[in-house]
Amino acid sequence: MDLTKYERIFTEEAGKYLEELDRFLMEVEKDPDNLNLWGDIHGKVHSIKGMSRALSLDKITGLSHLMEDWCKAFQQGAVSASADMIQMLFNGVDILKGLVEKGGKIEDNESLGAYNGILSQFEKDPDQWTGKTGQFSGPVPAEAGRIDHVRVKYSLIEELLGLSQEIQFMEKRLPPVFKGQISMGFKNWIDHYTSMLKGLYFRLAQLRLMPVGDFADLFVKPIRDMARDYDRNIVFDVVGGDIEADLVMLERLREPFIHILRNSIAHGIESSEERIGMGKKGEGRILIEAKSEKNSIAIKISDDGRGISRSAISRYLKENRGMSGEEISGMPEEEFLWTIFNPDFSSASGTDDLAGRGIGMSVVSQTIKALGGKISLRSQETRATEFLMVLPVSLSIIYAISFRLGRYVLSIPTSKVVSIDRKKFSEIVKDKSYLDIKGILGVEGGNGEGSLHVLNLRYQADIEGEKGTVKLAVENIIGNTPLMIMPLGEILGKIDAYAGVGIMENGDISMLLDMDSILEGFPYLAFPLG
Amino acid sequence: MDKNKKKECFVFKAFDQYLGIRPRYIYRVVDEIKITPVPLVSECYLGLIYYRGELFDVLQAGRLMGKVELSAENGRIILLKWGGKKIGLIPEKIVGLTWISGEGEGEEKYGTDECPLRFIEPDDIWDMVNGFSDGFDKI
């Protein structure tokens, strides 16, 4: 498993906790007998220990473990914390900060000496400790940290967006302005002003977006904890994590996700021994996949566990719906599996027998419905289960490579672009591996002489079972720019080649191409350049 | 003519005839808006405009109704909104708001060419659009 991402998250989270610890320690310095404050301090140190242990950052785990013992003693009131003891904790926090910054490593003898020194002090029970603190300062720079992030309440973002929308509505109420009615200078000023307002809204709207990958990261720790509780060996992967979705929607998906994941771990994925006995890999896999579709975002949670127990569903249908075996076997597969979303499914059936998948699943489906989305379910007994949620996109901003092709301005999501080259037109014409995008889109006009930009794209359409890359030649690249994606209307929605309409920051329009659809329509590569 | 029987109507000319539409469907008449062309559409579809936070498909009214030649008055666009649908139309000429007889369809004449007036509903235009867009290229 690639731990780099989790290490990055750890650095961010632990850094945040350590800053909070500094604040709490300053408070407790003034009120050393405040057991609640010691509870908060204990909790933060404990969290750092847990996170570092998960990533095998032993030096951080070792120190935070000993510091936790002290905090626990203070929290329980067993020992009253002296000013020197609190200073020891400050020093410990400083050393932890240095360790977090350096990925848990100690790179020089001086730092190692400080680390070992403070460790030997914390090894003593606080009521036995009589030391002084001066010599145990850690490898931490004395200057204040750089400010590159600030915390902002989500409600403030909502408020700013609301105000920005109000201003846009005011713009709508502005009467139309025709030539000759006002001076050109005034008209230019209005155009510039309204364009700036769009830009403001555009940037504010980005604050409301969160990459699905960051959202999925919220589940790393719960999955790890649940896997440990149920003695399961699980890998957790995310595909399409760079796709951004509305924070409000993701927040509402948190509980349903936890529910599905808990069921996957508790009842879906088998123990390593059982899996190996079944010819599976000992390690179970949970996968979250996000895909941006025309006017929606599709998120799939799948596992390679034992699937949903069909016999349990049949039993429920017989006992609670009075259905006969013949009627049950005649049910369409989708309808049969949908039984688990019935509100009384869990209460009427044993959770163990049902592999737990019915419990509260009605709440999951209700949440998705409330968000205006749809959930579907597929299950293969002994092999896999997958929940597919298709949710409407209320707001979507993506980065895309925008370019000109003839008289058109088009875009492709940056995540699809592997690289961009520049090639001579004469070379491109000879090369048969280019996708004839001009021909496909019916773009007229020659490429002329000179050079063209070449976009090397990755695509997901299977060609001989493998993903691959494809090359497009375009005339002029506008840039890698953020686009606010608006849904295709009914008219353009009939054309499969488009994924949406992109609005650039200056209000210009660019059609977002759906390269997967285009390549599905033309699943071969050797095209002459049109 | 009994004035009580007259109704207000927004009149424009397309395909050599005058068309009347109820004013409540007219959202705006705009000019000098940049129309972004879109590939894979028929000739009557001129492109998209982003007007005050909303997208409008812009169609050439004459071509939509079957005329091949293009002519437009100052490139003005009539933006229509009704029943959750919206569209932009570029007519050959805009007459504007006028009172016409409620039962005199075909009797009112406009312009030096004395063309008859026809009332239309936005859904009639939408049906014409669908007739065209069903034939848009499929990928």
Task: Summarize the structure in words.
The complex is a heterodimer of chains A (530) and B (139). With 530 residues, chain A is of the alpha+beta class. Helices cover 45% and strands 21% of the residues of chain A. The radius of gyration of chain A is 29 Å and the shape is globular. The relative contact order of chain A is 0.07. A five-stranded mixed sheet of chain B has the order 8-1-2-10-9. A five-stranded mixed sheet of chain B has the order 3-6-7-5-4. Helices cover 12% and strands 44% of the residues of chain B. The termini of chain B are far apart. Chain B is mainly beta and 139 residues long. Chains A and B meet through helix 6, strand 9, strand 15 and helix 18 of A and strand 3 and strand 4 of B.
Low-confidence stretches of chain B: none
Q: Determine the strand fraction of chain B and express it as a percent band.
A: 35-45%
The level 1 CATH classification of chain B is Mainly Beta
Number of helices of chain B: 2
How many strands in all of chain A?
15
**Helix share bin of chain B:** 10-25%
What's the total number of strands of chain B?
10
Report how far the terminal alpha carbons of chain A are from each other: 45 Å
Number of separate structural domains of chain A: 4
CATH superfamily of chain B: CheA-289, Domain 4
What string gives the helices and strands of chain B in order? EEEEEHEEEEEH
Q: Could you tell me the mean pLDDT of chain B? A: 79
**Tell me about the biggest sheet of chain A?**
5 strands, mixed
Flag low-confidence runs of chain A.
135-143, 347-359, 461-466, 524-530
Biggest β-sheet description of chain B: 5 strands, mixed
- What is the CATH homologous superfamily assignment of the largest domain in chain A? Histidine kinase-like ATPase, C-terminal domain
Spatial arrangement of strands, main beta sheet of chain A: 2-4-5-7-6
CATH architecture of chain B: Beta Barrel
